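User: For my dataset I need records formatted as: sequence, then structure tokens, nothing else. Please produce one.
Assistant:
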Amino acid sequence: MKTYLVFEPQAGSRTPEEAERVVFLLEKFSWPALLFGPLWLLWNRLWLAFAFWFAAMALIGAAVAALKKPSRRRRPRCRRFRSRRRAR
């Protein structure tokens, strides 16, 4: 079942002239918005939403970088790559 959003002028009187200004907007899912989120926001001129998305991604990236600890553990060397010379 299709659903629509109905936008009508705020004027209190419902005249035929006002009825011409009523807008019906189909509600539907947008696959391009799901798959290409930031590009879709820019394409549809949703600048503020893109700014919020960008800020959220920057904060998440900074948090991940801050929580990432460098590994100080030294890995053991494989025997296969040791020098083949033996002490005599």
